[in-house]
Amino acid sequence: WLKWRASLIPSTKFGADLIVKNGVIFTSDPSFPFANSMAIRDGRILRIGNYSSLQDLSGYGTKELNLEGKVVVPGFIDSHVHLISAGLQDAIEALWLGALYCGLAFLGGKMWDSQKSRLEKLTVRVFLNEFFMCQKIVGEYLIPIASMKMVRVQLEGVNRKDEVVRRVKEAGGGWNNDLWGGELPMASWIDEVTPDNPVWLTRMDGHMGLANSVALKFAGVTNLTKDPNGGKIMQTADGEPTGLLIDAAMELILSWIPEVSVDERREAMLRASSFALTRGVTTVVDVGRYFPGSSVEHSWQDFSDVYQWADSSGKMKIRVCLFFPIGTWSRLHGVIHRAGRALSNWIYLGGVKAFADGSLGSNSALFH
Description:
The protein is built from 10 helices and 21 strands. The protein is an alpha/beta fold. Helix 8 packs across helix 9 (297-312). It is elongated, with a radius of gyration of 26 Å. It starts with a helix and ends in a 15-residue tail after the last strand. Residues 1-12, 92-165 and 167-171 have low confidence and may be disordered. InterPro entries: Amidohydro_3 (IPR013108), Metal-dep_hydrolase_composite (IPR011059), Metal_Hydrolase (IPR032466). Residues 64-99, 160-368 form the Amidohydrolase domain. Pfam families: Amidohydro_3.
């Protein structure tokens, strides 16, 4: 009798391995907009409905999750991201770990010097290096990490990790002049605090960057340097470079910055994917790291070294729709002809990316 009864109960091989119940589930179906339960197997939805209508999918090993009235919606789609670049930017949080390794401890909500057991005024410098090291220099912590930026951040009175990260990010790449009234920065703004090291800080839209005077000299950018095709070197009234480089002109500095490693790009993609999931984003359209003046190979390198690697090793966390530089359209056409657009459940080949104008924020658009 027990054997006969067991045969009537589906196993998770054919039924659900998870039933979510007591939720407010938005179905996107106008005829049945909301349900309270859904059955899932291997990460895919088997059925959505009322709890009683899913019992035929419940079997040995089926787990249940009580949402207690929480809302469930389809995953959000972000239609324009630079996923790997975002992950690299977020790596600045490694600064906090670096501070810990340098002898700091986060105790009782305060940042203490573990050797002197007291709060200490700190200045943090960050600049490009391929290795990790820490060194105490005249009341400052010198922390090289994988970033071309070198920024100075006052941490006096700061006792929370998120505040440290926020200040470093604000002082570093991703700046937005609209936040301080619109005035564009100049090299002279940061020369005083970076007299000996090259600095490159990219604007938040990726169409403009600020170099300090050391970086301009290092890259050979002078009042005689001509604007490259598709870019502009901003100048003062007397013709000297201000430090701002727009679009293709950014390559004058970027060409001197070593390419980030494959491992760093892989970690960046996974880091950005995890962050996207915390915001309910399950699919993104990634237009890549290509911009005027940069190599068209960046997008293809990321495709093979990062996305195909993650897909083949089972590490993908969100679905991606990839775009490639328009100059490589024939290569993309060949891949689609051989393999189709949907390479897997995770990777979809979307189309090509071209630049027809600049950016309003970076004052490079024709109609600005």
